[in-house]
Amino acid sequence: MEEHDDVYQQLLNVAFRYVSVRPRSEKELRDILQKKLHVLKTHNPIVLEKTIKRLRELGYVDDTKFVHWWIEQRQARKPIGSPLIIFQLMSKGIAKDQIEQILYSETENEQALAFRAVEKKLLLWKNIPQLQLKRKIYDFLGRRGFRTGVIYKIIDEVIHNKVQ
User: Fold this and answer.
1) In the chain, % of residues over pLDDT 90
2) Are residues 117 and 80 in contact, defined by beta-carbon separation less than 8 angstroms?
3) Is the pLDDT reported for residue 62 higher than 90?
4) Contacts of 63 (CB under 8 A, 6+ apart)
5) Cα gap 43→37, rounded to integer Å
6) Closest CA to 139 of 73, 128, 75
7) What is the pLDDT of residues 117-146, one digit of tens each?
8) Are 138 and 125 in contact (CB under 8 A)?
């Protein structure tokens, strides 16, 4: 039993180190802790579940909070499109319907996000020909994961404002 307590404490310590850097999804923590169990040459799902349960009680494992944090981070500094956010969160083990529910209820208009993303670049691109400008905007926003329809609206808005 003492061995289980030792493994449990080691898993908690590993988890605390990881969540001190940034929030983590439950899947991320499970993967990290599973690797630690492998390193310790033990496979004890009971200790793993006990650790996850304790982390939940302490508020370190909450996928809903994690999704809110992830979306906020991705839209604050360098805005990216909803499809890319959904892809990233699904790779972190979050269900698509949970992501969409939070994403579409709280985020600002995707067109406004796309414009914010391209705004600084427009200063660099102010003297290039219109056709090249359209391509640069399309490529830039496409790499950021914005939908084609949103990109075309931004291009139209930029070109319309440049003509006037």
Assistant:
1) 60
2) yes
3) yes
4) 25, 26, 93, 94, 98
5) 6
6) 128
7) 999 899 899 889 999 999 999 999 999 999
8) no
